[in-house]
Structures are given as structure tokens and as C-alpha cells.
Recover the amino acids of this structure.
């Protein structure tokens, strides 16, 4: 919907329809509950049992009991959270977004922004790259139109989901600040943006994607405009301005202020920030072998491949960036303070469905304005900022080990045949594989949606459980019978499934603990001792950061580990295969993505043998 093209009086009616639709979405989902304090503290202690020796656990148990005693500090903070829940749409989501994302000072590439790599398109060359990009842009605009008019309410396990994130996907951008960032949403302005940003060879262009009558441009119109952009963006000595957005957030915030002192720079930056989304037209991914191509392709979307490759074709602060390579590689990079996995998956499903259909409209025979090239005045200070950013990004990229593979022996149908949750099955397998490589269990977090509540975002499911630890310790013990191992495995999977249900019902641990900690800070109190305890630090040093990204396509998500000595593992289970991505940092001698990948493949095969013995 293009507001500036609508007849007077229509805007108010359209806004009313949008507001009513959002109101209906909100009214159909309940508020997020504040879990009972006693329940959370008990669950917290239970989560520590597989990780701590008995003496440390006893110390922590006494500290937790003191915090949770009737009339104590925990009860006071709990009352504060319950009061907050009565007065706000969601008692934790804004705090969580601020703490998890906007106050983080780490660079967005690798550390924050997830990438989704999709199956390579069947083409090779810039001509087909532009044809597919035209189709992709049209598909995204079609999805945006559905959001504006007829977005159906989603459900999870029969429960309606909050839909408020969908409109925020477009014309949104993260803005750097000295102490914390903020998110700017431009889609609700009186003159809603009607352009996207296209970047090629480090050069940015403003591309209007609606005609003067408010209609969306056809694929052939968009294709003609992309041809014009290509003709204006031959490789030159242009500075890669997008590299600045890859910096440490405090450093980028300072450079951002310097950049915006200049009127031309400010105009160019604002056009990037306000655009509906960005399209990155990349040069081909360097192809070494078919085996390593999937990993190289995912890394390319995640960070651009380095300053001598396509990293200058990114604006990492932008909420949505679609990446299309000349070699058929493509995917999506998103900034997670606004966007998150399930809505992004729906968007990708729509794009893939749309790409199977012919162009529905013929291009009107009207001249189109030339896409506007965005220029920057680069002084000595900004030039220095860019050079520092290039050095730091290349160091970060060279430090990241990415291993993407498709496990083809079986998929989610195997656990289902044995009445086991596929996600819980994989989570137990990940813990077993980690144990085999490192000879210990480790704190792990799996990401679960909280969109079944008003304004809900995400929560962690913690592992390992006591049942997982018992199974892991027994699995490679030859003295334990096959039947006993199978029973322990079932108990481990079922225990994780029970944890999942608990979290999906709004009774997770980590959001509640974070809320209690931030409530103490808000009331001007000292941080409670349970959060200063070494056990809390150990249990939240997430050596396994995991995420299931179920999708109806052979896509795989990729992001970096949360801690220097950890891994990040994403997986997309299909009926008869599972896509995995594993990342680790090369600077840590203890972690190795390929070693864990090989061990995981072997572990999955042995778990299949456990469920379906061949002898």
C-alpha cells in the first residue's frame, strides 16, 4: 500500500483496518505469564545438577533457597515483575531485546545476524542473476501486500500466534549508539517508503519499486531497472561504505556520528535505513570443491566472504538483506532485534512458491526514472574508519570455521516412527556428540518461540538434563545392555520434550531469571547473589548454541557461537534428511567444527542402529 498515491481520507481508513487486524491478532493470544518463583528456582537448580559437582551444587542450593524464601528478596522482585506484567503488553520482551541485542557491543556479522542459505539456483552468470533478482523482489513485495491486507493468523500446536513482527520486517533498521543501539521503524510514517536499496560492487542505489499510480512494479520493469544499476556499478576504487556497519558497535556509533555530519552522507544513509529491504548483488562464491561449497556459500551470506570479496555489499544494520550471487547462490541475512526465524521462514516459503509462477503482469509502457546512485563524501577520518573496519572484519571472518552438511541417512520420520520428538532426538544427539569430542557435558541452549503470547519473542530450552547425562555415560559402556541403553535414550528424549512443553507454556527459566535481575537493577538494588555465583556464570556460558529452523525447503541457517570456546549448531530436519550448520572459532584450540560434524554424523548413525538394530 503506497500512502502517497491514495485518495484523501483513504489513509485513515486503511490505518484503521491495519489497527483492527493487529488488535484482533493480539486479542486472540494471551499475555505472557510470569512463572511462579518457586517453580523457576527449582527448575534452575535441576538444570545445574548435570553440570556441577555435589559440593558446588550444595553451595548454590543454599544461595537459591535464601533468595526464594517467603518475604525475601526474590519475593520482592517477583512482585515487581507481576506488577509490570499487569501494566505492560509483555513484561519481558522489551527488556530481553534491549539486553540481548541493543546493549550488546559485539559486531553484528557472525555474533548476531543469522544467515539463511538456500539451494543454489540453476544458473550461472549475471544475466540470470538479474532475472532471478527481479522475481525475488516481486515476491517480497507480494508478501508485503499480504501482510498489509490478508495475513492469516498462524498457529503452533493449535494455539494462535502473535503476528506483530510481520509489519516490522520492512523499512526497519538498527541504529548504532554510544552505549546502546535502537531500532528505527519507518514503515508507519505518513509517507511510507516505496523504495529498496540495491548494492553491487560496494555501490548503493535507491530503486523505487512502485509505479506512480501506487501499483507494484512488474518483474520486467524491475529487471530493466536492475540492468540500469549494473551499467552504473562497474568495479571501481569505490570505498566499501557498508564495511563500517560490521564494526564493534561503539566504534561504529562514533563513525556513524562523523559520517552524518555531512549532508550528502546523511541523505544516503537515511535512504538505506528507510528502504523496504536491501538486495545484495554478489560476485560468485569461490568454488573449491562440491563438498566445501555449501559451507562457503553459507559463510558468504553470513559475512560476505571478506573485504576482497562481497563484505562491502552489506549494510549489516538493515533488518532484511537478500543476497543473490552470479553463480546461483542466494539467501537472506537478517538483524534479529526485529526479525526472527519463524516469520523469516514464512517469507522464504512465499518467495519460493512465487518463483514457481510466471510473471502475472505485463509491464506498462511508461518511462521509469533512473535508479538513484547514493554518494558519500569520504574525508580522512572516514577513510581511516573504513580501513580499521576492513582489518577487523577480515580478522573476524578468518577466525570463523563454518561446516555445513546434509545428513542423508534419515530425517525426522525416523524419530516419529518410534514416537519420539525429532527436535528432542537431535538435541540428545548433539549432547552425546559433544561429550564424545570433549569428554564432558556442557551448558546448551535451544531457541524456542514465545509468540503464543502477546508480544512474545524467544526463550531458551536448557540442556543437558539428568536423563541425558545418564544416557551419555551409558551409551559407550559395553557393559550396559542394548535394551538398557534404548530405555535411557527414550527417557532422555522424553525429558527434553517435557522441558520443551514447559517453555512453550511460558514457564522457561532464563527469561524469568533475567527479569528478576533487571528488576533489581531498576529498583536500585545490588545484583542478587545468585547471579554473582560462579554456578550461574558456568550455566550460562553456552558452549552449545543451537536452533531448529524447520522449513519446507532445503535451507540451512548459520550464525556464530555465543562464547569463544563454543559452537553454534543450526539444523533443518526434512522427512528423510537433515541439514546442519556448525560454526566454531579457530582461535580456540579446543573446538573444531569439522571434528564435531564428523562425530555427529557417526553418533546419528549409531542412534539409528539403537532404534533399528540391523542384527
Amino acid at each position: 500500500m503506497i500512502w502517497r498515491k491514495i485518495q484523501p481520507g483513504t489513509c485513515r481508513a486503511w490505518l484503521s483496518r491495519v489497527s483492527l487486524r493487529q488488535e484482533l491478532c493480539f486479542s486472540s493470544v494471551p499475555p505472557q505469564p510470569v512463572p511462579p518463583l518457586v517453580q523457576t528456582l527449582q527448575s534452575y537448580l535441576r538444570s545445574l545438577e548435570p553440570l556441577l559437582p555435589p559440593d558446588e551444587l550444595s553451595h548454590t542450593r543454599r544461595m537459591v533457597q535464601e533468595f526464594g524464601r517467603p518475604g525475601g528478596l526474590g519475593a520482592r522482585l517477583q512482585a515487581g515483575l507481576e506488577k509490570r506484567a499487569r501494566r505492560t503488553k509483555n513484561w519481558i520482551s522489551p527488556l530481553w531485546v534491549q539486553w540481548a541485542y541493543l546493549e550488546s557491543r559485539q559486531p553484528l556479522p557472525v555474533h548476531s545476524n543469522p544467515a539463511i542459505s538456500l539451494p543454489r539456483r540453476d544458473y550461472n552468470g549475471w544475466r540470470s542473476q538479474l532475472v532471478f533478482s527481479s522475481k525475488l523482489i516481486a515476491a517480497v513485495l507480494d508478501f508485503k501486500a499480504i501482510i498489509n491486507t490478508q495475513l492469516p493468523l498462524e498457529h503452533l500446536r493449535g494455539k494462535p500466534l502473535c503476528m506483530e513482527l510481520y509489519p516490522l520486517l520492512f523499512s526497519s533498521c538498527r541504529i548504532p549508539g554510544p552505549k546502546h543501539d535502537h531500532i528505527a521503524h519507518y514503515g508507519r510514517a505518513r509517507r511510507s517508503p516505496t523504495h529498496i536499496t540495491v548494492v553491487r560492487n560496494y555501490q548503493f542505489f535507491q530503486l523505487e519499486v512502485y509505479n506512480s499510480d501506487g501499483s507494484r512494479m512488474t518483474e520486467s520493469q524491475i529487471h530493466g531497472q536492475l540492468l540500469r544499476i549494473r551499467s552504473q556499478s562497474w568495479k571501481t576504487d569505490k570505498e566499501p561504505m557498508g564495511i563500517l556497519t560490521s564494526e564493534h558497535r561503539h566504534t561504529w556509533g562514533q563513525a556513524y556520528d562523523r559520517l552524518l555530519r555531512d549532508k550528502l552522507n546523511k541523505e544516503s544513509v537515511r535512504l538505506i535505513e528507510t528502504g523496504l529491504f536491501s538486495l545484495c548483488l554478489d560476485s560468485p562464491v569461490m568454488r573449491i570443491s562440491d563438498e566445501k561449497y555449501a559451507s562457503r556459500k553459507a559463510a558468504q551470506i553470513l559475512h560476505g566472504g571478506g573485504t576482497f570479496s562481497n563484505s562491502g555489499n552489506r549494510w549489516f544494520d538493515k533488518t532484511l538483506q537478500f543476497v543473490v550471487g552470479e553463480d546461483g547462490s542466494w539467501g537472506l541475512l537478517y538483524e534479529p532485534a526485529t526479525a526472527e526465524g519463524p516469520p523469516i521462514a514464512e517469507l522464504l516459503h512465499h518467495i519460493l512458491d512465487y518463483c514457481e509462477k510466471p510473471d502475472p503482469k505485463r509491464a506498462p509502457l511508461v518511462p521509469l526514472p533512473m535508479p538513484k546512485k547514493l554518494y558519500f563524501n569520504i574525508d580522512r577520518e572516514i577513510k581511516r574508519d573504513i580501513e580499521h573496519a576492513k582489518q577487523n572484519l577480515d580478522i573476524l571472518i578468518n577466525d570463523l570455521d563454518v561446516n555445513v552438511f546434509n545428513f542423508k541417512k534419515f530425517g525426522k520420520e525416523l524419530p516419529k516412527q518410534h514416537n519420539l520428538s525429532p527436535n528432542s532426538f537431535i538435541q540428545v544427539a548433539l549432547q552425546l556428540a559433544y561429550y564424545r569430542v570433549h569428554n564432558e557435558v556442557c551448558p546448551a541452549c535451544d531457541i524456542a518461540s514465545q509468540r503464543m503470547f502477546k508480544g512474545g519473542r524467544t526463550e531458551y530450552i536448557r540442556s543437558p538434563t539428568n536423563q541425558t547425562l545418564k544416557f551419555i555415560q551409558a551409551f559407550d559402556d559395553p557393559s550396559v545392555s542394548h535394551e538398557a541403553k534404548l530405555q535411557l535414550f527414550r527417557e532422555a528424549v522424553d525429558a527434553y520434550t517435557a522441558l520443551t512443553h514447559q517453555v512453550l507454556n511460558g514457564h522457561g527459566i532464563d527469561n524469568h531469571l533475567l527479569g528478576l535481575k533487571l528488576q533489581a537493577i531498576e529498583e536500585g538494588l545490588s545484583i542478587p547473589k545468585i547471579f554473582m555465583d560462579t554456578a550461574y556464570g558456568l550455566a550460562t556460558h553456552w558452549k552449545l548454541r543451537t536452533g531448529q529452523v524447520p522449513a519446507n525447503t532445503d535451507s540451512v541457517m548459520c550464525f556464530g557461537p555465543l562464547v569463544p570456546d563454543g559452537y553454534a549448531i543450526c539444523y533443518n530436519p526434512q522427512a528423510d534428511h537433515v541439514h546442519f550448520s556448525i560454526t566454531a572459532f579457530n582461535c580456540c584450540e579446543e573446538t573444531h567444527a569439522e571434528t564435531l560434524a564428523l562425530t555427529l554424523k557417526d553418533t546419528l548413525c549409531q542412534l539409528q542402529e539403537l532404534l533399528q538394530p540391523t542384527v
